[in-house]
Amino acid sequence: MLNMQKAVMVGCGFVGAASVFALMQSGLFSEIALIDANKEKAEGEAMDISHGIPFSKQMKIYAGDYDDVKDAGIVIITAGANQQPGETRLDLVNKNVGIFKKIIPEISSRGFEGILLIVANPVDILTKVAMKLSGFPENRVIGSGTVLDTARLKYRLSEHLGVDNNSIHAFIIGEHGDSEIAVFSSANVSGIPLSQFCELRGHFEHREAENEIAEKVKNSAYDIIQRKKATYFGVAMAVKRICEVIVRNEKAILPVSTSMHGEYGIDDVVLSMPCVVGSNGIEMQVPVVINDEEKEKLQQSARILKETLSTLDI
After folding, report:
1. Would you say the pTM of this structure is higher than 0.85?
2. CA 218 – CA 107 distance, rounded (Å)
3. Is residue 176 annotated as part of the catalytic site, yes or no?
4. Choosing from 176, 203, 206, 261, which is the catalytic residue?
5. Are the C-beta atoms of residues 120 and 11 closer than 8 Å to each other?
């Protein structure tokens, strides 16, 4: 029987451990099992994080194995090689596809019926790989996509405009990577078009500001990796948010990795688009208004991902 109060984390590196820590603090789950190729690493992280439970809500956090996925509501996969300085997310693809070929059959063979959340990079490619290898329905296989990128965009716009980021409505779509697109054409601040609100705040060089902000968002991971060798806190919070939406059946709109079936002239590829997400996973893709330039960039992003997929043995 499916237990939505139980999660399994596959991969106990920086991202996996930080995500479990964030989930422990959230109190969303009563049980979290940690799986890692290095069992002692999983045990150590479980012990360390468990010592914070007295400051949160009662739950059980432990090192487990793939049998623990049988009744889990959500299985989160962060396992994979880390992105190195100077390396793109797409450079990771062959290493991490090989890892997924070992992980996904272990999960699917246990009769798992919950939501599979892919976080490892390149997330859009690996979400498609997970769909193929598992045979699970598309709505139950979700990539963390551009949820973090969109948060970074809202953060930058909030700083630029001096306004609460919760009042800003904007998305990053496409690849979670170098070809991502900041959708400025339909962005707004509490219903006021972004360019109009910018002028209300004394900013008039719209194109220059948009390009600068988009570049900063796109390069965020590279900048962090250059300084501290890895990114994990921001994505951990993104993982927590996605899990909240699923467990609470919020039906919130998040830009997650999802299959395209002809939308915007794009087919047979997974990329990040706004979707209604709830307890059954992805309910529907939400049409986002984009201009011709943004549409062309989105199609180019899809072509890059499809070219990468075509080289994989899956």
Report:
1. yes
2. 33
3. yes
4. 176
5. yes
